[in-house]
Amino acid sequence: MSDENLGSVQYGRPSQVPFGSLTGGAPQQHQVRHRQLNNPAGTAASAAAAAGVPAASSSRPRATSDYGSIRASALHQARLRIESDVDCVSYAPDVTVEGTERQRLVDNSGEWYFESQHAVSGEELLSAKFESLDYDTCENSLWAAEDQSRTVWDLRRIELCRWLVHLLIGVVTGAIAFFIDVCIEQLAKVKYRYMKSMLDRCIFHDCLIYALLLWIAFNFIFVLIASCLTVFGEPVAAGSGIPQIKCFLNGIQVPRVVRLRTLVCKVLGVLFSVVGGLAVGKEGPMIHSGSVVGAGLSQGRAASFKFDLGIFEYFRTDAEKRDFVSGGAAAGVAAAFGAPVGGVLFALEEGASFWNQGLTWRIFFSSMTSSFTLAFLLGFYRGIPNDLSNPGLISFGKFDKLDYDLLHLAIFACMGVVGGLSGALFNTLNEHLTKFRHRYVTSKLGQLTEAVLVASITAVTSFVLIYTVRSCQPLGSDQMEYPVQMYCPDGKFSSMAALLFQTPEAAVRSLLHDPVGTYSVTGLIAFCLPYLLIATWTYGVMVPSGLFIPSLLIGAAWGRGVGIGLNLLFPTHFTDPGKFALIGAAAQLGGIVRMTISLSVILIEATGNVLFGLPIMVVLMVAKWVGDYFGTGIYDMHIELASVPLLPWEPPSRSAAVSAQAVMSSPVTCLYRQERVSRIVEILRAEPHNGFPVVSGDLGPGTFGTFEGLVTRNQLICLLDMRLFDDGDPNFHLANPVSLSDFRRVYPRFPSVRQLQLSEADLMKSVDLGRYMNPAPYMVLHTCSLARIFRLFRGLGLRHLVVIDHRNQVVGLVTRKDLARFRATHTGDLKELQFTG
C-alpha cells in the first residue's frame, strides 16, 4: 500500500444545511474550518452537487467535542490551529476535551450544570460538552475469539458473579442507609435537646433572642459542613443525584457522577443537610448513593486509589456497568422507603433506558437484599435483633382504618388537581431560581453563602412560626421526644413546635397519625406556605438534598388541613384527617416529580395497606395530568436546564419525513484498514470525535470510501499505548497476542493521546485496524427516516450510526447529539435546537 493511501483522512469545505424546509425558517449555514489533509483542492463536499448525491449537500460539517454539529460562534472559539508537522500541534485553550485536559475543563465548571448563559437567556440550546456512553458491543475478532473460548462453566461463572455483585450492592447500600439514619438520629437528638433546654429557660428569663441565635448557629455549622463537602469536595454530589443518574442510564457520560469521592461527599453531606434543618430529605441521595455503589462494586477496583482486586473484569464495559447502576438505584429506593418492588419499578420508569428480563430479577434481588440489610441492622441497633419491621428509612406507620367510598374518591381526585397545580408552581419557581443561581451565584464563596443563608432563614422562619402560631395541645397526644411548651399552659405543648422540632420524616408521620384536634387549619396553612417557598429555594443549593420528604411534608400539611375542614363540615362522615394527609402527600409529590407507577407502589409499600392503592393511583394520575399541562417534572426540568442531549422514550412527532441525510454529520473523518501511526496520532490530536469509520477504496462524489467497519477513539489510543504496530506483518499477532482484557484493564479512564510516549520510529510504523474495528456495526441508508434512527439509538444504546448509500459508500455519521437536537413543539411541529460549546 502506498504512502498516499496511509493517510486518507478527508475533510470537506463548509456546507449549507437546507433544514429550513423542515422548520419553516431559512436554511442555516454552519461555517466550520477544517484542515485539508490529502485533499487540498476538490473536496468530497464540493463535488456532491455535481454528482447529484444528496448527502453532502444536505448534511452538516462534523465538528463537536463528541460528535454532531455545533454553532459557528462556538466553533470559532474552539478552532484548531494545526501546524504541518505531527509533533508540532498547537491548540486553542478551550478546545482540548480529552483525558486530563477534559477533566480540568469539567472541574472548573463547579457543578454539573455546565451551561449557564443559554439556560437563562431563553434560547433553547444543547450542550456539546456532554459525551455519550457506548452500550453497543464491539463484535470484532477479539470479541469473537473470547466468545468462542468460553465454556459452559465460564458462562455460569459470569452469571453467578452478576448475582453476587447485586447481592453486594444490596448489602452495602443497606449498610449506608443504616449509617445515615443512625448519624442523623444521634445528631438531631443533640441539636433538639440543647434547643429545647434553651427555649424552656428563655421563656421565663425573656431571652428568646439567644435561643434563636443558637438555632441559627446549629443550622449554620451543619449546613456549612455539608456545603463545603460539595463545593470543595465534589460538586456533582449536590442535589438528589436523580437527574444525573437518569442521564447516565440514558447513555450520557456525566463526569464523576459514579466516583467513590462522590459517594463519600454525598453520604456525609446529606446527613449534615438534614440535621442542619434544611427542607431536604435523605431518600433522593440514597438513590444516587446506591448507583455509585453499583458502579464501583461491579468493577472490582477503586481507580481513585489505584486499587485493583482483579475480579469482575468482564463487567468493565459501559453496558455491564449500566445494569449494575440500575440495580444500585433500585436498592437505594428500597432502602429509603422499604419498597423493593417500588425500587424495581422506579429503576424501570424513571431511570433505566434499556431493560431485559434477566436484569429485572437481579435488580429485584438487590432491592430485597438492601431492604433486609437495613431492617436487620436497625433491629440490632434498637435492641430487637429479630425485628425486621423497619425495612426503610421512612415508614408511614400503621394505618388502622383506610376505608373510602365514591365521595372520598371524588374528593381525592380534586386533591390531585391541587397537587398538580402546587407541583407546577413549585417547579416553575424552582426553574426561575435555578436560572438566577446559574447567572449570579457562580463562585464557590457565593455558593457557600447561599447555603448558609438558606439555613439561617429556615431557622428564623421556624422560630417565627413557633412564636406566632399559638396552637396548644395536651401532652400525650403527640409522641414527639422533645415537646416545647412555649407560651402554652402547663401540661400542654406547641403543636407547631411538634412539626419543627423533629426531622422531616418524623414530621410526616405526625401529620399522618396524630389524633384529631392536634392541629388547626390556620396553623397548617401558616406552616405549609413558607415551607413550600423554602423548599423551592433549597432544592438546587450546593448541598446534597432529597426532594421526596419535603414534598410529602408539604402535601401532608395541606392534605390534613383538607381533612380537618371536612371533619368540621361533616363530622360523622369524615372522621380521619390522616388519610387526607396521605392523599395530599401523594398529590404533592406526584405533582412535582410526575411519577405514577413506581410512586404508587412505593407509597403502597410504605403504608403497608394495599387496600388504599386505588385512591393513591387516582390522585397520582390526576396530579401528573394537571402538572404536565404546565410543564415537565422537576427532574426533567433540571436535565433541560443543564442542556443535556437526553433521548426521550419516543421519537419526536412528524419525524418520519426527515431522512438520515438531513440529520447526519458530514464530512466524516475516516481511516483505512492499514493506517500509519503518525496519521492516527495527528487525527486524535486534531479531532475530538470518538468514532471513525474504517473504509477502503478511493473517494467518490460526496462519499468517503467503501465502508468496512468502525473503530473508536479509545481503541485507537489503547493500540498506540500497547504499541501494536505490525507494519503489515501477517505473523505479528501470533508473536504479540492481545485480548479484550487488555482493553478492559484501563477502562474507564483511558489515557489521553497526550500521555502517549511514541518515538520517531514508532510514528513511521503502521497499524492493522482490521482485528480491532467492529466489522458489523449498525448502519443505515441515507434514505432512512429520523424516527427509525431514533428507535435504533433508544433501543440499542448506540453511540454512532454510520450512514451509507446504495453502493456501501460512507456518506455521513449519526450520533446522539444529531438526534437530540430535534424536538417537538407544543403544536406538534418539529424544531431543531442548536449546540453551544
UniProtKB/TrEMBL annotation:
Membrane topology (UniProt): Multi-pass membrane protein
Record-linked InterPro entries: CBS_dom, CBS_dom_sf, Cl-channel/antiporter, Cl-channel_core, ClC
Protein keywords: CBS domain, Chloride, Ion transport, Membrane, Repeat, Transmembrane, Transmembrane helix, Transport
Residue ranges of domain CBS in the record: 664-727, 773-830
PROSITE patterns: CBS
Residue ranges with Low complexity bias: 41-65
Region (Disordered): 1-65
Listed transmembrane segments: 163-187, 208-232, 324-347, 359-381, 402-426, 446-469, 519-541, 547-570, 582-604, 610-627
Gene Ontology CC terms: lysosomal membrane
GO molecular function: chloride channel activity
Keyword Transit peptide among UniProt keywords: no
Subcellular location: Membrane
Stated family: Belongs to the chloride channel (TC 2.A.49) family.
Protein name: Chloride channel protein
Organism whose genome encodes this protein: Macrostomum lignano
Source organism phylogeny: Eukaryota, Metazoa, Spiralia, Lophotrochozoa, Platyhelminthes
